[in-house]
Design the sequence.
């Protein structure tokens, strides 16, 4: 049973993620997105509850940069017995400005 409240779409884009301090950052690939959050692929997910800052675009270089604060709400650990489960972490958006919300909604609808 899918517990997600918001419709989501597949989206493969590079996401800059900053955590703990401004000196710790990484670039990860997204798997999907909704108006409520994004799933990032990684073999080494952050702990649930971790605060993060994200920056990404949703369609090409001309697309406005989306900047959002978020929190890790779920993780999928690598599991060789479950090859269909993509390892990574689900991040809930905590702050999403109107322009970013409009861009994401227009993708999903």
Sequence:
């Amino acid at each position: 049973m899918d517990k997600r409240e918001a419709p989501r779409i597949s989206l493969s884009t590079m996401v800059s993620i900053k955590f703990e301090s401004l000196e710790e950052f990484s670039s990860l690939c997204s798997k999907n997105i909704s108006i409520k959050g994004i799933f990032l692929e990684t073999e080494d997910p952050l702990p649930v509850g971790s605060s993060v800052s994200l920056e990404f675009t949703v369609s090409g270089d001309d697309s406005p940069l989306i900047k959002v604060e978020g929190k890790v709400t779920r993780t999928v650990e690598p599991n060789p017995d479950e090859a269909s489960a993509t390892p990574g972490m689900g991040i809930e958006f905590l702050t999403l400005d109107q322009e970013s919300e409009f861009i994401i909604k227009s993708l999903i609808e």
